[in-house]
Design brief:
Strand content: 5-15%
Oligomer: single chain
Number of strands: 14
CATH architecture: Alpha-Beta Barrel
Distance between the termini: 20 Å
Strand order of the largest sheet: 1-2-3-4-5-7-11-12
Shape: globular
Number of helices: 15
């Protein structure tokens, strides 16, 4: 069989991705306000119980605020990127990064989102970080909101259910565009905007016990509507301040296969997949789908919409669609007696043809190609893979190095399928950022021992360690891959 050429288009953006709440630490330094993530404790749970990490009540919040310095709230320390950012970016540059996806912590720009003036120390930090990226010719890709709403949205508002939060967010976005726009050509409004349906506290600052006066699903749908408006307004604002900038949305790209060829399993799969796209449809097409409106109606919920909302959505359509992709699952109309595969915060029927990671995520490189084709055929706008990666229990070997051939294999096979999607399927793909390019606190488990990075960080699940940075074998492989512009056929 003829060897395929896996080379990518000139100018393709190779890099890595992180989130402020998972790496920065310094949770109360230099005027930073408290976020929801600062109040989520580490809990030792089994693979099948990841969703317990997202169970959050008013009592949990009160305990977090009263917790002492020795309590284990991993996001408060992260990997101390706030103090190590120059070293970290230098290591990214050594790998050859063309792009670095990062997020800005809203609470570092405004200690309290109601403040009239932003926190100058927070602005100075991000401005210096962005300048550091530019020093190495790394293109920043900046997410405005990545799972870290200010805690005051819970204590003094009703999360994103409160329409007033839209104006607070746009005030914050305006500061970001004005202060950092000269360094940033690519923006994302909300990380995995669909995630509020799965873990409403980290995405929407919604705590169920604070909505006892209404159906909680009603609150979630309304909060999602407000985030759609905020995203659209931010897109329009960004274009007005920096017309050449590109601003996109970001989704969790889940992919489900029918478990069998039974019509019932195919119908269940179709319905699940329609649900995955419903909020990105709004951001790309500028209007609600009839499918989503019918879903809301059938659940006995109702959206409160103002007369101007439809025009706001239409005028704030995104320039590109970015997404996370990690795994696939199967769907069956009846799951009794079937093996289930836990993954991230979503469970599905286990696929007998796929291997699973230590955390139960089923690895499927071909599923990435399928996802790229499905997304491009649906939206016909440029795509950006901004999260893809493998969490594993890396260890330092007797030779003092970190050998991670499993991560290299995962990367190689996914890159091959990206190339096929571009060169054989005609997909327009801007770039690729490996999730957790440096070890960080896992969002799904809040562990450090679930490591994604090409760079090892010496700290354990309880914050003990030197925080020393050490390149893994995958660091050097990715360096070669970027130098070859993705042509993996001649890289060993």
């Amino acid at each position: 069989m003829e060897e395929k050429n896996y080379k990518f288009p000139d100018g393709f953006l190779w890099g890595g991705a992180t989130a402020a709440n998972q790496i920065e630490g310094a949770w109360k330094e230099d005027g930073k306000g408290i976020t929801v993530e600062d109040c989520l404790p580490y809990r030792e749970v089994g693979i099948a119980d990841f969703t317990k990490q997202f169970h959050f009540t008013t009592k949990d919040m009160e305990e977090a605020l009263a917790a002492g310095a020795d309590s284990n709230y991993p996001k408060r320390r992260g990997i101390q990127h706030y103090h190590y950012y120059k070293e970290d970016i230098r290591l990214f540059a050594e790998m050859g990064f063309k792009v670095y996806r990062m997020s800005i912590a809203w609470s570092r720009i405004f200690t309290d989102p109601r403040d009239e003036k932003p926190n100058e120390a927070g602005i100075a930090f991000y401005k210096d970080l962005l300048k550091e990226c530019r020093k190495y010719n790394i293109e920043p890709l900046v997410t405005l909101s990545h799972y870290d709403p200010p805690l005051v949205l819970i204590t003094d508002y009703r999360g994103w259910y409160s329409r007033e939060v839209i104006d607070l967010f746009i005030k914050y976005a305006k500061v970001c565009f004005e202060q950092f726009g000269e360094y940033v050509n690519y923006w994302i409004t909300f990380n995995e905007v669909d995630a509020m349906l799965r873990h409403p506290v980290t995405s929407g600052a919604l705590v169920e016990d604070r909505f006892q006066d209404m159906n909680f699903e009603q609150a979630i749908y309304q909060a999602m509507h407000h985030q759609m408006l905020a995203s659209a307004l931010a897109v329009k604002l960004c274009h007005s301040i920096y017309p050449k900038a590109q601003i996109g949305c970001m989704m969790t790209k889940l992919c489900f296969y029918p478990f069998t060829c039974k019509p019932e399993d195919n119908l269940a799969t179709q319905q699940r997949m329609r649900g995955i796209y419903r909020y990105v449809d709004i951001q790309v097409f500028g209007e609600y789908s009839l499918h989503l409106l019918k879903e809301i109606e059938n659940k006995g919920c109702e959206l409160v919409m103002l007369p101007e909302d439809n025009s706001i959505l239409k005028e704030g359509r995104v320039d590109f669609v970015s997404f996370s992709y990690y795994m696939t699952s199967c769907m069956a109309a009846e799951t009794e007696g079937l093996d289930m595969a836990p993954g991230n915060t979503v469970n599905g029927v286990k696929n007998p043809y796929l291997e699973s990671s230590e955390w139960g995520w089923q690895t499927d490189p071909i599923g990435l190609r399928i996802s790229l084709v499905d997304l491009y055929d649906r939206y016909r706008v440029p795509l950006f893979i901004v999260e893809n990666g493998l969490g594993a229990k890396d260890v330092i070997s007797e030779d003092g190095k970190i050998h991670d051939p499993y991560r290299i294999e995962y990367l190689r096979e996914h890159v091959k399928n990206m190339s096929l999607a571009i060169n054989e399927d005609g997909v327009e793909l801007i770039g690729y950022t490996w999730w957790g390019c440096i070890d960080l606190v896992s969002e799904s488990t809040r562990q450090m021992s679930k490591r994604y990075g090409f760079i090892y960080v010496d700290v354990d699940d309880y914050g003990k360690g030197t925080y020393k940075r050490m390149p893994k074998d995958s660091f050097y492989y990715y360096k070669k891959l970027i130098a070859a512009n993705g042509d993996v056929s001649n890289i060993n």
